[in-house]
Amino acid sequence: MKRTLLVAILLLLNFNAHSQAAESAIEAARREAKMIFYTSVETEFARALTSAFEAKYPFIKTDIFRSTHDKIFSRMNIERQTSTYVADVVSVGEFETYHMQKKGFLQPYKSPHAALYPEGFKDPNGYWTDLYDNLIVSAYNTNRVKRDELPKRWEDLLQPRWKGRMVLDQNEDRWFANMLHFMGEKKGMEFMQALAKQDVAIRGGRSLITQLLSAGEFDFQIVAYWYRPYLMKKQGAPVDWIGLEPAILALHPISIVEKAPHPNAARLFIDFTLSDEGQRIFLKRGREPALPGLRPEGYPGQLKIVPSRVQLAEKLDDYSRQYRTLFVK
């Protein structure tokens, strides 16, 4: 009885301590009253997140800087060089996040919600946690490609029937790096060299390419983000998708910036975005939340999916050069 009572008292004290810490963090964020979010996600989704956050915490006003991964990285680099600290929270691709962490642009924060995210979807030291995903699939024009000729594995793209019919984005070094990793460097490079001989067209903008695919300019888009052809098909476009295994999951981590001007508001925002409430904002818009168990309508359940290897960013320059040499030329 005494032991049971002691455990109950300790649990109550622990709960009260957490509650007091949470209240203290909220009060500190209230005093800061502001939060700046740098992100590569579309403005619509960024604003949906910050609007919901402001509705929950009306005493914090948010501002967004939305741009590409590269431009955000460059801007933060300049801010560090000039000791001008503006951003509080940043969310870009996993490779850019890796280099930001390496350069000291980020500070660790282990949100209580991060405990629900599995290995590979968060940094063990708390520098980042995955915010949302993009499943990499292939898309095709249903008027120009018959179902019985669709590839069943990546190597099928090397068949003569696909020569001159495929397209890639000019910036697919993330896919390239992961493919070499999962296939093995030697086998992967042999595959890429053979694929480059298939007269693959190169264009800029993955979403634009899917639109061009729908218009009949191309037959097969080697790398597409699942949600795009899925939503276009629902709207009646002559587009569909297939998943070639392993299907790579592109990550988009979220982090607190080192020397953030509003660190308490930043922690509160990260807690919100990683929570069930915040993750459902992506779900309601047909996108892919990172939180396990939340998947949008139509999401493939049986496909073998592997998260992008963040550590591959260490050799990103080499992968980018190899990709451009083979495909962009």
SSE map:
Blueprint: H1 2-32, E1 34-39, H2 43-56, E2 61-66, H3 69-81, E3 89-91, H4 94-102, E4 106-107, E5 129-141, E6 166-169, H5 173-183, H6 185-196, E7 201-203, H7 206-214, E8 220-225, H8 227-234, E9 239-242, E10 247-257, H9 263-274, H10 276-284, E11 288-289, E12 305-307, H11 316-328
Parallel strand pairs: 1-2, 1-3, 6-7, 6-8, 10-12
Antiparallel strand pairs: 3-10, 4-10, 5-8, 5-9, 5-10, 5-11
Helix pairs in contact: 1-9, 5-6, 5-11
Structural notes for this entry:
- The protein has helices at residues 2-32, 43-56, 69-81, 94-102, 173-183, 185-196, 206-214, 227-234, 263-274, 276-284, 316-328, and strands at residues 34-39, 61-66, 89-91, 106-107, 129-141, 166-169, 201-203, 220-225, 239-242, 247-257, 288-289, 305-307.
- The protein is an alpha/beta fold and 329 residues long.
- Strands 1, 2, 3, 4, 5, 6, 7, 8, 9, 10, 11 and 12 form a twelve-stranded mixed sheet that branches.
- The radius of gyration is 22 Å and the shape is globular.
Defining key terms:
12 strands; 12-stranded mixed sheet; 329 residues; single chain; 11 helices; globular; D-Maltodextrin-Binding Protein, domain 2; 2 domains
Roughly how many Å is the radius of gyration? 22 Å
The CATH superfamily of the largest domain is identified as: Periplasmic binding protein-like II
**Helical segment tally?**
11
Task: Name the structural class.
Answer: alpha/beta
CATH-derived architecture of the largest domain: 3-Layer(aba) Sandwich
Q: Enter the CATH topology name of the largest domain.
A: D-Maltodextrin-Binding Protein, domain 2
Give the low-confidence spans: 10-20
What percentage of the residues does DSSP assign to strands (E)? Answer: 15-25%
- State the end-to-end CA separation: 76 Å
